[in-house]
Design brief:
By secondary structure, the chain is mostly helical. Helix content is 65%, strand content 0%. Its main location: membrane.
Length: 54
């Protein structure tokens, strides 16, 4: 390849940036605090169940 030819690296990544930056109107929007609270409650319930079963 000559030094003057364009490899297309920047051009091909521009479509990915545009794709991941767009917000989908049909997507489920969750509050991060809700997800964190669910994970903590799920972890605590697994620990409680593991203590009662064993």
């Amino acid at each position: 390849m000559s030094s003057g030819s364009n490899s297309g690296g920047l051009m091909s990544s521009a479509g990915l940036v545009r794709y991941f930056d767009s917000q989908d109107r049909n997507a489920i929007a969750l509050n991060p605090k809700t997800v964190l609270a669910f994970c903590i409650l799920f972890g605590v319930s697994v620990q409680v169940l593991s203590l009662t079963v064993a």
